[in-house]
TrEMBL record:
Name this protein carries in UniProt: Integral membrane protein
UniProt keyword list: Membrane, Transmembrane, Transmembrane helix
Segments crossing the lipid bilayer: 31-49
Top-level taxon in the UniProt lineage: Bacteria
Amino acid sequence: MSGSTKTMGVLTVASLVVVTAYTVALGSNGWLWFGWVVLGLVTVGLLVSKPT
């Protein structure tokens, strides 16, 4: 796993924590969840496209 893929993974997990905390504190925001899903899909795409 390359450095950029690890960074994207950490960013994805950190953003999930932030979005979840926002949802608990202030209520759900669909755009935040949509953004997190897109970020997750980009991260998965990086993982799949990298040669082993």
